[in-house]
Description:
Blueprint: H1 3-22, H2 26-33, H3 37-44, H4 52-62, H5 66-74, E1 88-91, E2 96-100, E3 110-117, E4 122-125, E5 133-141, E6 143-148, E7 151-156, E8 160-165, E9 169-172, E10 179-186
Antiparallel strand pairs: 1-2, 2-3, 3-10, 4-9, 5-8, 5-10, 6-7, 6-9
Amino acid sequence: MRSEDAVDLLIGARLAELRAQHGWSLGELAERSGVSRSTLSRAERAETSPTAALLNRLCHVYGRTMSQLLSEVEAAPAPLVRAADQQVWQDRASGFVRRSVSPPHTGLRGELVEGRLAPGADIAYDRPPLPGLEQHLWLLEGALEVTVGDRVHRLGAGDCLRMRVTGATRFRCAGPDEARYVLAVVRP
């Protein structure tokens, strides 16, 4: 693959991510930018190399300079992240520990997260960070109850739940042991 093609892929992924962050359809973005839906779609899928004029229109809609947009895709993601360098965050109030196994990067759509819930932990989210977020939860140890919308899933060690998150979710560890899982997150 030529380096120009790789940059186009990164720009396309970033444009798709920005649109998703705003919760806009291609049609809504077309109305806001004056660029056709088909051109926007081809640019996001890197089927065409976006022109400076196209990027300028999109930068205007997203409230950033072209330099800002391009700097967001210039740095390549680290190919290897040692366990000692993985970011760990803890919510002491709920008993939730989150390890970013693969750090997110604006040019990539997926990431892996290790989650641990203490017995009795109960975490409810009223909405996803991004509408249409896809998650695959693979339970490694313990038992976990995951509610997606109004559907409750009871998972045991080794089970895998795939979900497209559009509304409320809840993660509950009834115990008696900690629940430890891998979560694959794929942005729309």
